[in-house]
Amino acid sequence: MKDYFLQTKRIGFSIWSKEDLNLAEALWGDPDVTRYISAEGELTAEEVKDRLLMEINQYQEHGVQYFPIFEAEENVFIGCCGLRPYDFKSGIYEIGCHLIHTMWGKGYAGEAARAMIDYAFKEIKANKLFAGHHPENSASQKFLEKLGFHYTHDEFYQPTGLQHPSYVLKQQPPGS
Predict the structure, then answer these.
(1) Could you tell me the domains of the chain?
(2) How far apart are the first and last CA of the chain?
(3) How distant, in Å, are the alpha carbons of 4, 96, 112, 151, 152 from that of 67?
(4) What is the DSSP letter of 171?
(5) Stated pTM of the model
(6) pLDDT of residue 172
(7) Order of all β-strands in the sheet with 11-13
(8) Which pLDDT band, with edges at 50, 70 and 90, does 176 fall under?
(9) Which of 13, 28, 112, 121 could form a Cys-Cys staple with 48, CB 3.0–4.6 A?
């Protein structure tokens, strides 16, 4: 059973460890999941391992990562949702969410992202959140807009070699 540092009604957020390689492989080893996050559309086994180690390192250095998420009641792996520093000095974090394709369409991404947005502003004290998506991924565009993100610019994303539409979410004042 995983320990959760954050929980919603259905989702528990944990922290990646080296023992989670099988989960990382189930997620980032699936071309359905990675088709919009790498130039080749899929990650090799070595790239998946590197991705896991990068997430672990992010947590050690900055206290955030794209946290592994689980269906809390049954402890079933869903994917990941979390933060990484975007402009650390300015308090801007990037938010991201990747789900195992069998978990798509069940509302987990929205529930996890809303919890992470709340966590970012209340616990991490982020000033803004940044997000981007592959230019062909219209579902991510709709998802970000539904969460309240506003398009700001296109930005080069090294892993795909493309300009990605980019968005910002500013913290809302209390009571707004």
Answers:
(1) 6-170 (3.40.630.30)
(2) 38
(3) 10, 10, 10, 25, 26
(4) P
(5) 0.93
(6) 62
(7) 6-7, 11-13, 66-71, 76-87, 92-99, 128-132, 162-170, 150-157
(8) very low
(9) 28
CA–CA gap between residue 66 and residue 116 (Å, rounded): 10
Mean pLDDT of 107-120: 97
Q: Which amino acid is at 159?
A: P
For 9-35, write each residue's pLDDT tens digit: 999 999 999 999 999 999 999 999 998
Token pair, residue 160, equals 């795909």
- In whole angstroms, give the CA distance from residue 131 to residue 156: 13
Please answer whether residues 81 and 116 qualify as being in contact, where contact means their C-beta atoms are separated by less than 8 angstroms.
yes
Q: CA angle, corner 30, sides to 166 and 141, nearest 5? A: 20
Helix (H) or strand (E) holding 77: strand 76-87
117-156 residue pLDDT tens: 999 999 999 999 999 999 999 999 999 999 999 999 999 9
